[in-house]
Amino acid sequence: EIDLAVHSLKDVPVVFEKGLDLACITKRADVRDTFLSVKFPDLMSLPKGAKVGTTSLRRSMQLKLKRQDLDTESLRGNVQTRLKKLECGEFDAIILAEAGLQRLEIQG
């Protein structure tokens, strides 16, 4: 049993379980995604076949629309774990939600 849940609206179901209500929607955080890379300044400078990590199908599809030649792969873990994977060279770049970086006071 719970008294209160706070969740990202994109993950909230359309139909709620009995006894649950959507009580309020808070002010929306930054909606942008952020490109992060140790070696490359931006998306267009990535070489063909570069490995780009992302946590969402939406971001992966948007990347493919812009750069079909990139290898998009699922990126799991909390933000710190994702950043560590980038720093260790598991990915050439990663795409993260700017709002998540701001909440942790990380400059993107």
From TrEMBL:
Record's function text: Tetrapolymerization of the monopyrrole PBG into the hydroxymethylbilane pre-uroporphyrinogen in several discrete steps.
GO BP: any one term: protoporphyrinogen IX biosynthetic process
NCBIfam families: hemC
Subunit structure: Monomer.
InterPro entries assigned to the protein according to its UniProt record, in alphabetical order: HemC, Porphobilin_deaminase_N
Keyword Transferase attached: yes
Reaction it catalyzes: 4 porphobilinogen + H2O = hydroxymethylbilane + 4 NH4(+)
Keyword NAD attached: no
Protein source organism: Helicobacter pylori (Campylobacter pylori)
GO MF annotations in UniProt: hydroxymethylbilane synthase activity
GO cellular component, one term: cytoplasm
Family the UniProt entry places it in: Belongs to the HMBS family.
Top-level enzyme category: transferase
Necessary cofactors: dipyrromethane
EC number: 2.5.1.61
Keyword terms, alphabetized: Porphyrin biosynthesis, Transferase
Protein name, UniProt field: Hydroxymethylbilane synthase
Occurrences of domain Porphobilinogen deaminase N-terminal (ranges): 1-106
Pathway assignment: Porphyrin-containing compound metabolism; protoporphyrin-IX biosynthesis; coproporphyrinogen-III from 5-aminolevulinate: step 2/4
